[in-house]
Amino acid sequence: MKLVPMRFKGFEWHHNPAEISFECGKQVNELKSPNGGAYIQNMERRNMVIKGKGQLFGENCLEQFDRLFRLFRQGGAGVLAIDKIEPVFAVFENLKILGKPKPDMLEYEFVFREVMEKKQKSKPKVYVIGENESLWDAAYKTGVKIDTLVMLNPEIKRPDEVTAGFEVRLC
Q: pTM of the full predicted structure?
């Protein structure tokens, strides 16, 4: 089974990270009562943090890292698409080289932080794929699950290989 490459703002990983973790949490307050009891106040969930480690391989591994570093420096939020995981609107928070780069391999780690924004309320019938976007971008921006988009658009063979200008049916 071939995994779909991880993507962020048009950058596609040649090799998915070897390790990835998702840190989720909620803001919970304990309020003490004058009569000795306590009340738990469940505020809201915190922004998810996505961390990972991986390797860039090949003669051009330093070029791959340079492209990733330029994306990091560019800043701004975008859709982070990871195979088998619901897309997340996130910012690229941290990028680090681990150890000394070798001629054909470079180890790195990264951190993305979710940006919780309200999704659009009106539901159009189609979404036009933009430059450097995938079906995961369409799923995130429209609020339609990726499985539904795949079912409604059987001509799409791979969610990560949709060309700009393609009209995706949403319902």
A: 0.67
In whole angstroms, what is the distance from residue 109 CA to residue 94 CA?
8
Q: In what order do the strands lie in the sheet with 88-102?
A: 11-12, 7-8, 77-81, 88-102, 105-114, 49-57, 19-23
Rounded Cα distance, 57 and 78, in Å: 25
Q: Rounded distance, CA 138 to CA 118, Å?
A: 15
Nearest-CA neighbor of 59 among 100, 105, 101, 97?
Answer: 105
- Cα–Cα nearest to 141, from 124, 121, 168, 119: 119
For 80, other C-beta atoms within 10 Å of its C-beta total 24
Are 105 and 55 a contacting pair, CB within 8 Å? yes
> What confidence tens digit (pLDDT) does each residue in 64-114 have?
999 999 999 999 999 998 887 888 899 999 999 998 888 899 999 999 999
Read off the tokens for 139. Answer: 């799923």
Q: Alpha carbon of 92 to those of 43, 107, 120: distances in Å? A: 26, 17, 23
Which amino acid is located at 149 in the chain? L
Q: How many CB atoms lie within 10 A of CB 14?
A: 14
